[in-house]
Amino acid sequence: MKQTPLMEQLSGQDAMFLHAELDGLPQHIGGVSIYDQSTAEGGTVRFKQILKMLDSRVHLSPIFRRKLAVVPMGLGRPYWVEDPDFDLEYHVRHIALPKPGDWRQLCILAARLHSQPLQRDRPLWEMYVIEGLNNVEGIPKKSFALLLKVHHCAMDGATGALFMNIVHDLTPEISQPEAAPPWIVERPSNLRMLGRAYVDAWKKPGQIVNMLQQGGSAFNRIRQGKKHHDFHTLDAKQRTRFQGKISRHRVVEGRKFDFEVIRAIKNTLPGVTVNDVMLTIVAGGLRKYLQSKNELPEQTLVTGCPIDVRSVEEKSAGGNMVGFMNVGLRTDIEDPVERLKAVHQEALSAKSYAQALGPRLMVDLTDVMPGNVLSLAIRAASTTGLAEASVIQNTIVTNVPGAPFQLYMCGALLVDSFSLGPLLPNVGLFHIVYSAVQNKKGSITLSITACRDMMPDPGFYADCLQASFDELHDAALGKKKRGRRKKTK
Question: Where residue 437 sits, what CATH number does that domain have?
Answer without folding.
Answer: 3.30.559.30
